[in-house]
Hints:
Layout: E1 2-5, E2 14-16, H1 22-37, E3 55-57, H2 63-102, H3 113-154
Antiparallel strand pairs: 1-2, 1-3
Helix pairs in contact: 2-3
Amino acid sequence: MVQYTLAQSPEIILTVPGKDSVKAREKAMDQLMELMDAGKLPTDLEDGFGPQQFIEVKEPPTDTASDEDAVTQAVQILSNLATLKLKVQESRTEALEVRAQVDILFSDKSVTEEEIARLKEGFKILKTFAQANLRYQEARSKAEDARAVLDKALKSPGT
């Protein structure tokens, strides 16, 4: 449904099925002519008024729709937090083991090529864990707001 009004009479709303189009504007013009013929148009329109002069009336989005969008977004944020939490937990132990091996680079003890090769492989694990942990920390702070949105949406009326 599309609605039109006139600059000269904004209180007149003409509703036509479909979207804003030439055809819809022509149907609105037909409705306008009926109003004029019935003497129900409070304004005299100058000659030459055409369908292109209609003003489309856009309804402001309802609060319910934006509330529903907020709930959907909150659930997505919390789902992302859950995924990141699992990822961090799964790689934490292994990453901490690699981190302990990093200290070997700062000691005066000699190391073997095998130890260095293992350490270099471990850096990938360490990097993955560190990045996931940073994303988790960021997601967690965003999730606080998401949790509040859900709590508000889950409140029963009168509580």
